[in-house]
Specification:
CATH class: Mainly Alpha
Distance between the termini: 20 Å
Number of domains: 1
CATH topology: Ferritin
Helix content: over 70%
Strand content: under 5%
Number of strands: 0
CATH architecture: Up-down Bundle
Order of helices and strands: HHHHH
CATH superfamily: Ferritin, core subunit, four-helix bundle
Mean pLDDT: 96
Length: 168
């Protein structure tokens, strides 16, 4: 059984994960408008991953006998100053998500909820991967600079990304 404090924090995280999905969908829409379908596809995959994360939290709350309480999802921005700005915003957002996961881990450790510690370890590891993948894209895009041909090739490469839900 989840403590009230942990249940509240997990419900807040469900909302944060849903917002992340919503944010990445907004970024994908912007990138489609910018005629960067590969970048847009990459962001659509990000949105799917975040929705998967939200459902992972949702199912965990249910499995632990808790109550899922869904709240309104905040409206994300709708425009950026190009693909580098999108990736920098993604990088900043992922750092914020990492901080949230770390705060959750601190809470469940303090509450001595060992099952939740085990559950959250997957997200700790996942955030390392998330931040690394975005950092790699930021570095590549900075390297490309204003080279349109290189941007085209990067866009084409990003279109090959596939979402494969991890085994639960």
């Amino acid at each position: 059984m989840l403590s009230a404090k942990i249940q509240k924090a997990l419900n807040e995280q469900i909302n944060a994960e849903l917002y992340s999905s919503y944010l990445y969908l907004a970024m994908a829409a912007y990138l489609h408008e910018a005629n960067l379908p590969g970048f847009a596809h990459w962001m659509n995959i990000q949105a799917q991953e975040e929705l998967f994360h939200a459902m992972k939290f949702y199912n965990y709350v249910v499995e632990r006998g808790g109550r899922v309480e869904l709240e309104a999802i905040a409206k994300p921005p709708v425009s950026w100053d190009g693909p580098l700005d999108v990736l920098l915003a993604t990088q900043k957002h992922e750092a914020m998500v990492t901080a949230r996961i770390n705060d959750l881990m601190d809470l469940v450790i303090a509450e001595k909820d060992h099952a939740s510690v085990s559950f959250l370890q997957w997200f700790v590891d996942e955030q390392v991967e998330e931040e690394d993948s975005v950092q790699t894209l930021v570095q590549r895009l900075k390297l490309i600079g204003s080279d349109g041909g290189a941007l085209y090739l990067m866009d084409r490469d990003l279109a090959t990304r596939v979402f494969t839900p991890p085994a639960q």
